[in-house]
Design goal:
Blueprint (H helix, E strand, L loop, with lengths): L3 H9 L3 H7 L1 E5 L1 H9 L5 E6 L1 H6 L1 H4 L6 E3 L2 H7 L8 E6 L21 E8 L8 E8 L26 H7 L8 E6 L4 H14 L4 E3 L9 H6 L9 E3 L2 H7 L5 E10 L9 E6 L7 H4 L4 E4 L13 H13 L3
Parallel strand pairs: 2-3, 7-8, 7-11, 8-9, 10-11, 10-12
Antiparallel strand pairs: 1-4, 2-4, 5-6
Helix pairs in contact: 8-12
Length: 324
């Protein structure tokens, strides 16, 4: 059964402010949650699902029994971001050091038994979404999957079941020597962001850097659009100057309609490809740092004014990684 404090916490994660504060994000639906449970990079904090789903996925769920809370369809609808909830909702841990400056330990108190550190409502004067501050709530009782005991959200977080917080933090770090990476300069549409992360996942472009004015890559819409790519692709929010300082000497490509034909231009074996905002294109700051501008030529008979940012990213990534 879903408690009032659990519902408050879960609905707070619909908002970027609280995702960043608690370093948690939502993953929904059977396919994506199963992917989450099978991988090792992203930690699993809690699971809320229908009993029928738990029965069907009993083997996969076995290591996470202490983190599973059975809910009804009505309760799932209250916490879901989907119009039609899909059997299960998971709360996942943001990888340590990715996209946020603050340390997780300053936001979430250590979990201890028999109580759990848990956000409790603290209504905001503005009335918009309410505020949340850390408090303690008793662990809810109830039966878990496969005869186990359901200890509620976060229970067993540091036990052998599920994942180890320390190892999760290590695997969430930036690769030491990435060869090809993307920098997203003001991408605003969640669908575009999710699709670009999926493209990066397909072509092995990691990490993906996001400018501070990009849409949140951990928003529910982005997670859904990316079909689980955020579970595999390292994503970091960082100013362009900071990224270039880390990769001194890297060639910097920029997608620009006035650039060279990407099918003919010599492309570097390593570097950074910048994708501009859907409406204005590259920012002035990004344009000033380019080594080469590349474009996708429009063939005779083509009439579209431009390509969608995600579509353009897919074409450019295919050409760049093909070695042409």
């Amino acid at each position: 059964m879903l408690s009032a404090s659990q519902q408050k916490f879960l609905t707070s994660l619909h908002v970027k402010k609280y995702r960043q504060k608690y370093r948690k994000f939502i993953v929904e639906g059977d396919k994506l949650v199963c992917e989450l449970l099978r991988q090792q990079r992203i930690g699993v904090y809690a699971l809320f699902g229908l009993d029928t789903w738990a029965t069907q996925r009993a083997d996969l769920l076995l290591p996470y029994q202490t983190k599973f809370t059975p809910v009804t369809e009505a309760e799932l609808k209250k916490i879901s971001t989907l119009t039609t909830p899909n059997q299960v909702l998971a709360v996942a841990e943001m990888p340590a050091g990715i996209g946020l400056a603050e340390d997780a330990s300053s936001m979430i108190s250590p979990i201890t038994s028999p109580s759990i550190s848990y956000p409790t409502p603290n209504p905001s004067p503005s009335g918009e979404g309410g505020g949340y501050e850390l408090g303690s709530a008793p662990l809810p009782g109830g039966g878990g999957v496969g005869g186990g005991v359901n200890r509620g959200v976060g229970a067993g977080l540091n036990q052998s079941e599920g994942f180890n917080t320390e190892s999760n933090q290590k695997t969430g770090t930036i690769p030491a020597s990435p060869l090809k990476s993307l920098y997203l300069d003001g991408i605003q549409d969640p669908g575009n962001m999710g699709t670009i992360l999926r493209i990066a996942d397909w072509f092995g472009l990691s990490p993906v850097y996001c400018s501070p004015d990009c849409v949140d890559p951990y928003s529910p819409k982005v997670v859904q659009a990316g079909m689980g790519a955020v579970l595999r692709v390292v994503v970091e929010e960082a100013p362009l100057e900071e990224v270039l300082a880390r990769h001194e000497g890297w060639p910097v490509l920029g997608a620009d309609m006035a650039g060279e034909d990407v099918f003919k231009a010599p492309l570097p074996e390593r570097g950074l490809l910048i994708i501009g905002n859907e409406g204005r294109g590259l920012s002035a700051a990004a344009a000033a740092r380019l080594s080469r501008r590349v474009s996708i030529p429009r063939p005779p008979g083509g009439a579209a004014e431009s390509l969608n940012a995600a579509v353009a990213t897919g074409i450019l990534a295919a050409v760049w990684t093909s070695g042409q």
